[in-house]
Design goal:
Protein name: Tetratricopeptide repeat-like domain-containing protein
Radius of gyration: 26 Å
CATH architecture of the largest domain: Alpha Horseshoe
CATH topology of the largest domain: Serine Threonine Protein Phosphatase 5, Tetratricopeptide repeat
Shape: elongated
Organism: Rhodobacter xanthinilyticus
Distance between the termini: 96 Å
Number of strands: 0
């Protein structure tokens, strides 16, 4: 009796395996089609369509969608890059992404945003995430500190800008140190601190 059931059981197993393989092939074909449509939209410069296709393809809260949106934000014009960046950062935050994943997009948001409060919050968060990810002596942290100094200066946040300029100068080397000294000197001169500005400009 048991031996008679063996062919039946084997047949059911073969059928189930075939169905699974067929489903996997269909899923992979759909993925390839989705990736192709997304790439085509990017090539055509239709960034809104590319973002929508990425969401449909990857799911609304997936890490893959965040990656696709970040890539889109690097090529899209600012008015389309900003929504993609904001959405990607919201996904990364919800997924509790590691600081090294969030630091650079936050810095990019700070550089692009026309909203002073958003830019300030973004660079402040980027500094914190960079420090956590790489440490205070890393080149990444030096670059973020310099960016913060220039942003705060442009926004008229004088005390914070000065603190960041001094911190950035303590970390900077080579041509960036020269550029930073010049920027800091300009900042000081604009506030009537000409003697300090002259000392900075005369520094080797």
């Amino acid at each position: 009796m048991l031996l008679a059931l063996v062919p039946l059981v084997f047949g059911v197993m073969v059928l189930l395996t075939a169905r699974r393989m067929g489903g996997a092939r269909r899923t992979e074909a759909a993925r390839r089609a989705g990736r192709g449509a997304h790439a085509e939209a990017l090539r055509a410069g239709d960034f809104a369509a590319a973002a929508a296709l990425a969401e449909t393809h990857y799911g609304p809260q997936s890490a893959e969608l965040a990656t696709a949106l970040l890539a889109l934000s690097e090529t899209a014009p600012p008015e389309e890059a900003l929504p993609a960046l904001r959405r990607a950062l919201a996904i990364l935050s919800a997924r509790q992404a590691p600081p090294e994943t969030r630091a650079a997009p936050l810095a990019r948001l700070a550089a692009l945003s026309p909203d002073a409060d958003e830019a300030y919050a973004a660079i402040t968060q980027s500094l914190a995430q960079t420090r956590r990810a790489f440490g205070k002596s890393a080149p990444e942290f030096a670059a973020r500190t310099a960016q913060a100094a220039r942003l705060f200066a442009a926004q008229g946040r004088a005390p914070e800008a000065e603190a960041q300029f001094r911190a950035a100068l303590a970390l900077a080397t080579g041509p960036e140190a020269v550029t930073l000294r010049a920027d800091f000197a300009t900042f000081l001169a604009a506030r009537g601190r000409t003697r300090e500005a002259e000392v900075l400009r005369a520094a080797p």
